[in-house]
Fold these 2 entries.
Entry 1:
Amino acid sequence: SKSLECDDTEETGPMENFVSIFSARTAVGHDKEGNVVFLQVDGKSNIDGVNLYDMEVLLREFGVVNAINLDGGGSSTLVINGTTANYPYDECPNESFSCDRKVSTVLCVHEPYCDPIDCNHHGTCAMGKCACEENWLPPRCDKLFCGETNCSNNGICLSEGCHCHPGYIGKECNETCPEGWFGSMCKSRCKCTNSVGCDPVSGTCVCQKGFTGEMCQQTCPPGFFGINCQFKCQCNNTCCDPTSGSCSVPYNSSIYGYSKCIAQLLVDDQHLIKDNPSERWRLYTTMIILGVITASCIASCLLISCLTCSCYCQNEQLLCFKKTKHSSSKHKLTLPSGYLSDSLSDSETIPMKNYRES
């Protein structure tokens, strides 16, 4: 290499001096496997450091088979991740410390870039390859993957895994809700009675035979039986076992339902009205109030009559006397037998039949 150098381009002195002087040195090369090797030695020209012959020995010790000597001396600087890693010897302006020399060119080495560089924000770039987060597919970390079954078509694949539809649970959404539970993540409890469970998605109660209603709390109405009471009884009196539809009801708990059916048919046939104590009490109260009001009206009328007229019976005739404010005299009013006047005019009378009996 020395013989290939051009003395007329060397600005630091003769070529022999450049090769033999002790100073800071920097070189880059590769080994037999192709691994890149950087070698940087600190020093100060004519004081300490290494010459190129020593640098060759060091490179061979590191297994380097081909190398290039870079600028040395005060320009020999190694920066790793933005931080100076060696001890350059150029003095800082107006300082007693050493500083990096300002240079025009550098050799920059970094890990291979990933494509894309940010791995779509779902992974970490390492030596040119994206290390994707869980459930994100390489090489770009841009596609979700939740197993070969893809959530068993019972859920949605998200970055945190399968988000199951209501009624399903499990890592791959391949399990239905356990008995008695329903809804999203099977967190809701069924509210059913007389049922065989509820729908795992909506929570709708699945009633036992002979029961109906939103929560299966009602027995079948008279004349019906079976699942959801959808079948009509085929008996002469239309009553049957609400569970099986049998017309011959055994002596067991079903006898109550059978008796209830017969009673209901009687009520419907006779147009009977269910006794309601609260309704009866309301009727009695109304009657009492009306009675009090009627009695008050009658008493008021009698009081007014007494204040304006005085009447009495004589020889099957009603005699009335009018009271006036301006005179203390009394006027005798004689009405025909069997008539009662509501005024002083004989023409305005009403029948008074059976007066004595009344």
Entry 2:
Amino acid sequence: MREEKIMQQVLRLAEKGRGHTSPNPMVGAILDRNGKIVGQGYHRGAGMPHAEMEAIKDAGRMADGSTLYVNLEPCCHFGKTPPCTDAIISAGIKKVVYPVNDPNPVVNGKGARILKKHGIEVKSGLMAEQAKKLNEAYFKYQLTGLPFLNLKIEQTLDGKRTSSPSLTESLLSNSDRKETLRILSADKEIAGMRASRFFTKGDLIKYLRSLAAEGVLSVIVKGTDGWGAKILKHRLVDKICYLIYPEIGGRRPALEINLGINRISEAWKLSDVHYQNLGRAILVSGYINYN
């Protein structure tokens, strides 16, 4: 029970890095010694010290003989920062607890093996699903080379495009708009792109890979743009977000697309659906399950 509570704190620490760490994952770390937290930290941004380093620095000499809780397998390679495994070994940490292996092929189990080789106890699997969800964009990139795609659709109650940007601005405060970005976990929002430049699914994937190569691991695409409809039709969307405004009327549908689905039984379903009030709008978000 205590380990789970500490890991929950670790995940909350990691969350503080949201929007700043790409192309790295969000990571938090806590050092516990004899039932007392002696150090903690989180990864603040790409190129900055990793969470493990921050926690070890925070703990000082108290790190010796402690247990490290971190939400991703410690890295074991040189990048912009030195390997965390070296720091863990040097600090005298006796045990490392983490939920899931780092999917990056240069790590993926190697970090754990190095720690075990130096006599450090390693435990994995605690709160694995929560940890994967926190870094879903990072996991998708490492496994597919593509960014995590969020489709955002703003519409009236009758499914039409909102009548004007000034209306949506009046209905959503700055904090509401920031909360939308937090929920969608995006590094970049793409709007106003001409879908005609993407003739095939292959064209789209090539463009998305180029974004990921630039360190963009998560993207928001506006559904009212032609290319937003294309990525949905090609089943490239991971998460969808509807912002529904309290007005009726409009001439054009919010999402102009024909998916060729004629029966409700064949409709694509959303999972892990969340509903939230944002100002006077209602936010509905979920993950698409393609049939």
